[in-house]
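Cont'd.
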Amino acid sequence: MIFRRIPCFALLLALLSFVLAPLATAQDDDEVVVRVGLHAAEKNLNPFIVPQALPLTHDFTMLVYDTLFWSQSRIDPEPWLATGAEASDDFRVWTVSLRDDVVWHDGAPFTAEDVAFTYQYFADDGGPGRYGHHIYDHPVLESATVIDDTTVELRFEDPVSTFMMLPGGDAPILPKHVWEGIEDPRADATSLPVGTGPYVMVEYNPGTSYRLEANPDYFLGPPLVDTLIMPVVRDSQAAFAGLQTGELDFVTRNLPAPLVSRVQDNDELEVITGSRMQSLYLMFNTRKPILREPAVRKAMSMALDLQSIVDIVEGGLGRPGNDTWTHPDSPWAHPAGGHTFDAAAANALLDEAGYPMDGDVRRGPGGAALEFTLLVNAAAPPQIRSGELVAEQLSAIGVDVTVEPLDAPAITAARRPGPDGPPSVEMFIAVFESHAHADPDHLFFFFHTPGRGVGGIFSGYSNPEFDAVLDSALGVSVPEKQVLIGQAQEIFAAEAPAVVLYYPDGRWGYRPGAYDGWISDPGHGVFTKRSFLAPYASGAAPSATPEGEVRAGAGEEGAASADSDDSADSAEPGESAESESDISGDASQDDSQPADSMDDDSTDDGAMTEEDADTDVAETDQAETSGDADSAATAAAEGDGASVQPASDGEDSADDDDGAATVVTTVVVLAVIAAIAAFAVRRRRGQQGTVED
Amino acid sequence: MDSRAPSKTEPEPGSASQQRARSTRLLRLGSQYAAVVLAALIVNFALPRLAPGDPADYLVPPESGSVDDAARQSMLERFDLDGSAWQQFGSYLGNLARGDFGISVRDGRAVSEVVGDRLGWSLLLVGAAVATSTALGVLLGFAAGWRRGSRRDVSLLAGVLAVDALPAFFVGLMLLLVFSVQLEWLPVYGAVSPEALTGWAWIVDVAKRLVMPAVTLTLVGLGSVFVVARSAMISELSEDYVFMARAKGLSDRGVRRHAARNAMIPVSTVALLGFSTLVGAATVVESVFSYPGLGSLAFDAVRARDYPVLQAVFLLLSLIAVAANLLADLLYPVLDPRVRRSGS
């Protein structure tokens, strides 16, 4: 009976595995095809729809669309669709001259009409959005007028000295002939976008994959990769497995620390580092009675040993937060930065503020204990771990923090002000991307007294002095603005409405055999349009480059970017522009959207989350020891300046890994064989037994 | 729903009374199922709304600039989510009656289209898993139950339950590491390659990508089938007819054939119900392998508080469960002559 059929099953399986055996995927030799594993599904890049795959949304969008300047993260953005822009003395009127050699993907010529239309359309829509709120909210567009085919005049209600960064370096320019007449720009989430960008989206399977083809008519020359095949691979472990097996050539998620050495050890793979200006921060709801007091917040900030948090949560692959909030790579970073960690001073501050110790916890004048609930995204292990460490470190100064992991929408709900009062949240941890730190007005958006910007949903922080500085910073020239923002940052550091716990490093694994031109464009990471364009892409790209001249000129720039890539240097905003394409920060996430990291769906957080969970498993399994993470950290540190890290350091441990993995495999296979054999023998014996009976 | 309930109280066979009995039975069965479906509708509608947050937070994240209540309201209107709970439930039922499942908050597409995209892959994956877990569970369960308490029984029981206790994501990752990373036999993600494949190549690709998720899900479903098959075999072996068969000298093979056929009856119910539970259990497996099924759709929908999609997916899962149950109810008399003869 059924028992007899085991051999049949075995035979069937054998046949099946035979059929299934050949795995290699064929491809044309001349064509450069790169398979990119996306960490989350994006929609059709409709710029009016909430981003899905933060933090890569903006850079993905910018493969298909272009901006007037590139990019928002640079103090002096490079002209892109524009050839230049002149401001009036009061920075209210910007006259932008445009390229005349640009064509839309559908063949129509790009003109000033498109630019005027785009700005007006974003302004009229007035709906929430990643791009729109830099046009209808601040600054407020008054009018967009076409002067001639290649000149457009944009008039704003407020002075906007940083127009070339925001919105000029940020808002995608849309084709008038496609969007005109569409009343609800959010309705369409499926049709293929028409842009001017280096890539044309030719296929979109909702939730599963995209296919992009090079735009042969791109004004900076056709991009170096002919086809980008981009499947959505949700699981981090699966994505990196795909990278190792050759199914993927690049993975958009950050390489988890424990995998760094393994990827480096693989001859076919390399690791590239870069900055997306990410930050993981702790926000206080300053509308709550005790948290309203700057002394209490500052004391909590001083009690935090941020270096230990980076070391424990990220294996050292990151930088501790600055009390001045802004990411050190941002052009708006405070030159000093730094964090004060001094538990004794924190205790003194609380004693002085009237919160004496009462047993394990401090109590205020009314007997109210310093007890708070800290919300973290349950899908993001780095947030949970950071939260636990914060709770532990704060308990040392008599502040009792309970970490409560919730799903992203529940946290958002807790952060939204209710009908008759402030939001219920007390403290929460979330992640910001570069756009939130490169935006010249980021402090204004997030920390101005609620009513302007979006401060209400963050800390509700309100300080007239701070507001005044930021208000005056809105309408002044760039150098003056930097001074004023520096002042605001000092107030921020003293009052601590929020604390950046750390700035994670960006690092990605890729297959140089498929494409080796990746560069780091600070604020954008490496999966960004410049990585595909001959004037910027690094080294010898596999396909021929268009004009020698362009390439030569460009070489320097590319090199420069690779160098300055990682960070510290970008802190000086004054540097001349061209060479450091890199100062930047990108925009992938807007101010508007930054907290999305909380919205996990959309974000990176979620991604990190899963990543980490998986990573853990992998770690255990392959007998990776913590030593690994260390060596990875060292390697990363060494590789700091250069963007590509050679596989130097991790080798030993990686070998161990491999050994362990092989052992595991062998054991599993042997165990399976043994089990089958034992089963067969037992069955035989059983049958004999019955016969004898 | 107790699948055996209907068989008990039937009167003696007889034309008129049997007819009447049958119609009351069908009526009762029908009303039971209607009540279950209605309850499912209510729960499916209420559950997503009980969670904190709403779709407007997803569509109009509070962070996105100066968003006032009017913007939230207009967003909710677009998805017909602005009325009171009763109004919404009313229009939900009305739309449902017209076959309109609404528009996905996340996707902007018709829910029927979003779900339709995923349904096929889900059925393929779960169908494959149910088939293999049933076959394997029966095979091992009967083998174990044949001699209760023997070494074979104990080791199989321990082995299967141990495998059953392994979390699906862990099994999935192990398979990934062994068969993709180490051996490079199987692809790691998705249901089908993003490259344009046609004909045989497409079929092979789909089959390859199905293997690991289906195996993982098979292991998830294996335990329950095994346990039921084993105990069914044990209880059949203690029946008088087996005693009789042995007494008259029937070979082990013969005895086993008789017992196995009878033991298959409870197994068939478990296998059918397994279909509905595995669709839900597939969520984890689908995320590990980026398989575009209903489970991962529901997971994404929860994170966006995408009520229309959640309602549709939950409804579909409930209907599959109800249908599987109904099928088991109807199949019982067909499979089991004793039930058939006793009246239905």
